[in-house]
From TrEMBL:
PROSITE patterns: SSB (PS50935). The lineage of its organism: Bacteria, Pseudomonadati, Bacteroidota, Flavobacteriia, Flavobacteriales. The keyword Nucleotide-binding does not apply. This is Single-stranded DNA-binding protein. PANTHER family: SINGLE-STRANDED DNA-BINDING PROTEIN (PTHR10302), SINGLE-STRANDED DNA-BINDING PROTEIN, MITOCHONDRIAL (PTHR10302:SF0). NCBIfam families: ssb (TIGR00621). It comes from Maribacter aquimaris.
Length: 114
């Protein structure tokens, strides 16, 4: 039961080409945005789309998979956890960012997808 305390699963489309960073420690990190859509009908019965954007971070072997196979527009499934961190911007203001740290990436769509 402890594994579901902070567990996120998302299916969406990659919004930008992933950025891969090689850290001085030798670790690799991949970052990309993921769009998830929800559909509903408004009062007039018109179909509406609500899009949410998520920042996804992947480390190590998962980052290598992202680097090799994940491209803008690709549909992927993500399993991981939420992580919130803070930083101070150039104006000396405290900012907070919540990211999805991916443990697993599932490549969806057909094999013909580029």
């Amino acid at each position: 039961m402890s594994t579901i305390k902070n567990h996120v699963q998302l299916i969406g489309n990659v919004g930008q080409e992933p950025t891969i960073t090689n850290l001085e420690s030798g670790k690799r990190v991949a970052r990309f945005s993921l769009a998830t859509n929800e559909y509903y009908k408004d009062k007039e019965g018109n179909k509406q789309t609500d899009t949410n954007w998520h920042t996804v971070v992947a480390w190590g072997k998962t980052a290598e998979i992202v680097e090799k196979y994940v491209i803008k527009g690709k549909e992927v499934g993500i399993s991981g956890k939420l992580k919130t961190r803070s930083y101070t911007n150039d104006d000396n203001e405290q900012r907070y960012v919540t990211e999805v740290v991916a443990d697993e990436i599932l490549l969806l769509g057909s094999k013909n997808d580029k």
